[in-house]
Design brief:
Elements: H1 7-16, H2 19-24, E1 30-32, E2 35-38, E3 50-53, E4 58-61, E5 67-68, H3 70-78, H4 82-92, H5 104-131, H6 137-145, H7 150-155, E6 159-161, H8 167-174, H9 179-184, E7 188-190, E8 196-198, E9 203-209, E10 215-222, E11 230-232, H10 248-258, E12 261-264, H11 267-275, E13 281-283, H12 291-298, E14 303-306, H13 312-327, E15 331-334, H14 343-348, H15 352-360, E16 363-364, H16 365-375, H17 382-398, H18 402-416, H19 420-426, H20 434-448, H21 452-463, H22 468-474, H23 483-499, H24 504-510, H25 514-523, H26 532-568, H27 571-594
Parallel strand pairs: 12-13, 12-14, 14-15
Antiparallel strand pairs: 1-2, 2-3, 3-4, 4-5, 6-9, 7-8, 9-10, 10-11, 15-16
Helix pairs in contact: 3-4, 13-16, 17-18, 18-19, 21-23, 21-26, 26-27
This protein binds zinc ion.
Residues 40, 42-43, 50, 61, 63-64, 66 line the site of zinc ion (ZN).
């Protein structure tokens, strides 16, 4: 549910927040002249081309071209929507967001979630206290043997559910918790004869948190050999296993710090990793990776390493995750542990340094996938090769980056001892659609073309605000060829006449196209390019070119219309069109005259 945030709140956040202060929390900014500079967080680079202007409240990277205002930065850094970014900054700068009136049914839903969350929290505290109580000896001993220390236990709020049928039930009764809520969360189970009994018994309890620390559900590992070894909370209004990652609440800061997320399968794998100092790890809770998992993690990093068991199911899980990573354009690598090992057993077996080394040596998930397919194929036969290609190519086609895609085609060719052309041929090129397709393509290219002269006029307006009325009055802005730049020009005009100056964040707030926004943030830093002295000449030059361009386009359109009319032999229309053409030519001559020297 996307929240609506009133404009006044957005304006107030803008007023209070300082872009340099905010960005400084993400990266070290260095003051250079009027601006601040840093290594770009959005593309790898060795010399800083990421600029921040405090005066203009805007950032721009001259390496990758990304730019925007304070909200844009937070959105990109945390992978948030606009309202989410506003909320984060509003909270940070103490701007209250008025509660929206919600319908009674929505209100009931929110209240219910809050109540459920409270019940889960009570249960977590109950289990956690028991772990350190008299009954918790066995559980503490178990964790000690598994090498999990007190710090990790506290941080992850581990607990213990005793071998009792009504421990939690009685606890809830004493706290006057409505047991139907606890039942909904799967914490207690109704008895046929009335009443309830505890769901988790004789287990270590692992609370599962959301990003803000609410308890969504629990996992429980049996202390004895009674199956099932692991028991989880059922799906509920709070807990959806395909959308939750175990340990993320604790790990998220470390993931951002390391620029990397380690993904494992189980609770104990995760705890062991944290125990050994790999705090940027999360666990998928025994389910396959889902799109939601990846989106969740993407808020904190774009680089993942999966460390699944080396057995068949671990391999299968990795391969299944591949298309998700490709779809989300995430760089994911794979660590292959020695046979018979999971991350827990490997680290506890005294291989910490080796494990660290393996993280450095992790292979791209796509290579892992190719290895898997090829090792299971009969590459001696043409049929076997064809099957392997059949399996691999659909994934290759999913790779969006052309250079990476081509490198895999090449790699595949080498591995299969086949010419690249053979593989490319199999890749099902898009069918040719002749003229129409070319036309479409032309339009796309056209839309993306930003005529230099039009850009220059906008840059001048931005730099010399006082010229805006004069430029607007001239009418040249109506003659822009690029519709998007025309829209920006209109926005400039409106903002200037409303506020008496062009405030960049205001402009950025109006512009929806990413590429345009990047452009505007760039112009903000191009202060020095115009010499006041030659300004008038530059402007005049641009005016002439833009206006002439418009006349030429009109003429072109007119000529093709004339051709049509001639074909249809419609003399009545022809006369009118030819007169129009004469008029155009006169205007062209006038224009040349007007802008002479
Ligand atoms: Zn960059």
């Amino acid at each position: 549910m996307e929240e609506y945030i009133p404009d006044e709140v957005i304006a107030e956040v803008r007023r209070r927040a300082d872009i340099v202060e905010v960005i400084s929390e993400y990266l070290p900014l260095k003051k250079t002249g009027r601006n601040h500079r840093a290594l770009c967080p959005f593309h790898p680079e060795k010399t800083p081309s990421f600029m921040v202007s405090s005066a203009k409240q805007v950032f721009h990277c001259f390496g990758c071209g990304i730019g925007g205002d304070i909200f844009g930065f937070v959105m990109k850094s945390e992978n948030l929507s606009f309202p989410q970014a506003v909320k984060v900054l509003a909270k940070k700068f103490g701007v209250p967001i008025p509660q929206r009136r919600v319908s009674p049914s929505v209100k009931r839903k929110i209240d219910r979630r809050e109540q459920l969350s409270k019940v889960n929290r009570l249960a977590m505290d109950y289990y956690h206290d028991l772990l350190f109580g008299r009954d918790g000896t066995e559980a503490r001993e178990y964790l000690r043997k598994r090498g999990i220390g007190k710090a990790v236990i506290e941080k992850q709020r581990l607990g213990y559910a005793p071998h009792s049928w009504n421990g939690l039930v009685n606890h809830f009764l004493s706290k006057k918790v409505p047991l139907n809520l606890a039942e909904e969360l799967g914490l207690v189970i109704p008895k046929k004869t009335g009443g309830w009994y505890d769901h988790f018994r004789g287990r270590i309890i692992f609370p599962i948190f959301d990003l803000t620390g609410n308890v969504l559900g629990f996992g429980g590992r049996a202390l004895d050999e009674n199956p099932p070894k692991y028991l989880n909370s059922p799906e509920s209004a709070l807990y959806h296993k395909g959308q939750s990652l175990y340990g993320l609440y604790v790990a998220k800061g470390f993931i951002r710090e390391e620029g990397l997320a380690l993904i494992v399968e189980g609770y104990l794998d995760l705890l062991t990793l944290h125990q050994f100092g790999f705090k940027h790890a999360v666990a998928t809770l025994g389910t396959a990776m889902t799109e939601s998992h990846i989106r969740l993690l993407k808020r904190f990093s774009n680089h993942f390493i999966t460390i699944f068991d080396s057995d068949k199911s671990g391999t299968a899980a990795t391969v299944r995750a591949l298309p998700l990573f490709l779809d989300e354009e995430i760089s994911c690598e794979v660590v292959r542990l020695p046979r018979e090992h999971d991350p827990d057993s490997f680290l506890q077996g005294g291989h910490r340094d080796e494990f660290q080394e393996m993280l450095f040596q992790a292979i791209p998930i796509f290579d892992f996938f190719i290895d898997e397919v090829l090792s299971g194929s009969d590459l001696a036969s043409a049929d076997g090769k064809a099957r392997a290609i059949d399996e691999i190519l659909p994934m290759v086609e999913k790779i969006r980056n052309r250079i990476i895609r081509e490198s895999y085609v090449k790699k595949l060719g080498e591995r299969l001892v086949l010419k690249e052309e053979v593989i490319l041929d199999a890749m099902g090129r898009p069918p040719r659609r002749g003229e129409r397709r070319r036309e479409e393509l032309k339009q796309v290219i056209h839309k993306k073309m930003y005529p230099k002269t039009e850009e220059t006029i906008l840059e001048i307006m931005l730099r010399f605000n006082h010229l805006v009325p004069e430029i607007a009055e001239d009418g040249v802005l109506e003659d822009f060829e690029n519709q998007q730049l025309k829209m920006v020009a209109k926005t400039f005009k409106e903002i200037y006449f409303e506020k008496g100056a062009l405030v960049i964040p205001d402009i950025i707030a109006y512009v929806e196209d990413d590429e345009l926004r990047n452009k505007i943030s760039k112009w903000a830093f191009l202060d020095e390019i115009f010499e006041e002295a030659s300004l008038e000449k530059t402007l005049k030059d641009c005016f002439r070119k833009v206006k002439m361009g418009k006349l030429k386009r009109d003429e072109e359109a007119l000529l093709s219309r004339i051709k049509e009319v001639e074909k249809e032999d419609r003399q009545d229309l022809l006369g009118e069109l030819l007169a129009k053409r004469q008029h155009l030519l006169t205007r062209e001559r006038n224009l040349v005259e007007m802008y002479k020297n």
